[in-house]
Please model this.
Amino acid sequence: MLEVINVHKTFDAGTVNEKKALDGINLKIEEGEFVTVIGGNGAGKSTLLNAIAGVWPVDEGTITIDGIDVTGIPDYKRAAYIGRVFQDPRTGTASALGIDENLALAARRGHSRRLVWGISSKQRAAFKERVAELNLGLEDRITTKVGVLSGGQRQAITLLMATLQKPKLLLLDEHTAALDPKTAATVLDTTEKIVNRDHLTTLMITHNMHDAIVHGNRLIMMNNGDIILDIKGEDKKKLTVKDLLQEFEKASGEEFANDKAILS
Amino acid sequence: MGAIGEYLSSLSFVGLLSRLPAGVAQGLVWALMALGVYITFRILDIADLSVDGTFSTGGAVTAVLIVAGVPPIVAVLVAFVCGILAGMITGLLHTRLGIPAILAGILTQYALYSINLAIMGFKANTAISADKFNLIVSGRDVNVAIIVSVCFVAVIIALLYWFFGTERGMSIRSTGCNPQMSKAQGININLNKVVGLALSNGLVALSGCLFAQYSGYADVNSGRGAIVIGLAAVIIGEVLGDAILGKRMNFLFRMIFIAIGAIIYYMIYTIVLWLKMDPNMMKLFTAVIVAICLAVPYLKNARKSSFHRAGKNSAGGKKNA
Ligand SMILES: Nc1ncnc2c1ncn2[C@@H]1O[C@H](COP(=O)(O)OP(=O)(O)OP(=O)(O)O)[C@@H](O)[C@H]1O
Ligand SMILES: [Mg+2]
Model:
């Protein structure tokens, strides 16, 4: 479904801030795989997702989605294939627009924006049903401006927007990191449900090693802009946080410096 | 004492009443301009300064066409299209060439000064007398002018309400509100910014076109400071609307109140003239009002969470301890 072939990305090349964020990375993901991504700060996890989403052009390499070479396509056009949820709950929704309007925008992702009325009453009813599945009681406030919702509610709406039309690829970048533990667990639960129900091919970055092990059917670890560990199937089910820490030290020759990941 | 008494007795209340309808008519003409400013300033979150030039462009094109014998209604359409083109230039300077929006607007405005002069054959103004031409609105007949401009404003508000409810219009609203989210939803934000700027400037040129007909001449300087007047109308309308409607304030009411804001602005202007104040001071007055209104939300917020307050609370805590 997704193929990342020898992708390089260097930020601020030729300056003192030069940073090689992706160093010839290769990754192939099959349809229906749910991949969790871990790695230290600055390992290049977000950069990998941004490269796939087309936030900026890569320096070298090829990215294909479902056999389509998207390397030369800007983000807003790639959005036809990709659903995204960001770390900051404010990023994924338009706060001045209603829940229904945000969903209506998502419902046209990958299609042209026509000069026809944006939401029909039939559509609004359908949105209500989808929102009800989130179990947040938001279905009765479908025209409420998203800006007044809590972070967790906004993140749930963003998730719904990303998956309203089945995307070829779902990209989640620490989408529960800004939420309190309880809300984070709820949103993660919803994620799991939607991904399983629609068999979505998913990449999910997390700093929580436990989450990375429990969720998904494949795990990759990144360091210095490359993948240093790739575990799937039965091997993944048997993983423990301790194994991961050991693997990280072995592969990178450094200690995993992230208390949050170790403690959880 | 005598001087003040003389001044007061020189003010005729009947005189004010007789002037107010003209203020309403002018306010309605400028309401179109205010709606244009609303599109960029509030919906797109861009402070577009090209409007000062586009307003004059609307007037210049109208005057020249009408003098050349073109029916005024056709002149209205051509003025609208010229405004759209000017807005597109600003949009392209911004999105294609990476020039900051404010600067792009200033560049367009600056260039339009020469272009507007060129349109009028390098004269600073062009007369279109209501005696000679069958104008759509004219200061000669204020009542008709009010009726006609109410129709214009109503139709434009209805069209804008429809447009911003369509799929395209909704995507323009999200572009201004959250560009990153918009891109993630497959929206071409650069295209939307150009469309929004074009539409806005189209309305501003339309306003300039009606204003030239109303005044009986087009002037290359007529748009100077138009952005501030537009902002004043938007702000007066929003403050008033929020006060009256509170939570029930929706997009339609907002636009209606902006139009009312423009009318109120011109009523104030009329009163200022009636009080025999120097009209040249009106710009200072307007700027102060707009600055205050723009600052109020910030100051309100700052009052809720300020270092000064935190310091006071902290000192209070010490006393209590
Ligand atoms: N837009 C950018 N401009 C300049 N440098 C960048 C940019 N984006 C990322 N980088 C740099 O690239 C490197 C990789 O960053 P990235 O955000 O991918 O890390 P990450 O693995 O997501 O880390 P974290 O866990 O902290 O989110 C970092 O050194 C970062 O500073
Ligand atoms: Mg990151």
